[in-house]
Automatic annotation (TrEMBL):
Cited InterPro entries: ConA-like_dom_sf
Molecular function as annotated in GO: carbohydrate binding
Organism: Gigaspora margarita
One Pfam family it belongs to: Laminin_G_3
Protein name as catalogued: Concanavalin A-like lectin/glucanase
Transmembrane segments: 6-23, 220-241
Keywords, in A-Z order: Lectin, Membrane, Transmembrane, Transmembrane helix
Amino acid sequence: MMNYYYFYYLVIIIISNSISVFGQNQEIRTYREVITKPVVFTPEFYRTVSHTELPIVKDELSITLKINLAGHAPYCITVFHKDKTKENCTPSLFLSPNESALIPSITITSIPWYNFSIANLVLNQWHHIAYTLSDPEKRLNIYIDGKWVGSLSIQNVQNQSIIFNDSPLYIGKHPLYDGINGQISNFRYYNYCLSHNEVLMDYLGDDPTKSIVDESPIRFFGGLGIGIFLCMAVFICSYYIKHSIRRPRGYRPI
């Protein structure tokens, strides 16, 4: 009898674990498109989005946009920046003086400004930019026109983390810095870190979150199928062991 109780206990554990793993992978992934059609920006023009209007972020986010620069600036300018102070810049993207190279920046433990410079933008040409950030992976990735062009990683992964904030998001001019001279469209704020394939989907104008929904039933039944298979394996093994062990013969009375 104890063997059967043990078997049922294993079955419950296997199925519950399969369902719980599925549930952990199904956190709601969404985005808000702050700007859809092209908007003309000048160094003094900006858009502000309050923190409560954006999707809730835990430890990952992504921002994608299309940008068309009309001219370079002789100083560093802002594409977007969350927070109105210098104490936190997660997430933020600047352009370098004279060449408009991308300067993606974040705030991490003990370092208010952690950034790098990559890839000059060509004037009067539309570019798709994807800024993807993950604290579990300790990394920031940058994509231009669907191509991965650079990354920034945290070196001290045990003691440093990306610091997020609850401040407004500034697009264009920031209270402390001038904004771009050009146009921005299709500005999307995601609450998770896009993969390269999802960046390509966004670049082509598709919705990366729909691919996750479409795959959910397959992933669910796939995980459930593995659980059932393991249950059957446990049952067969227990049945085989039970019937393969020969019980000792009892003595007949003389």
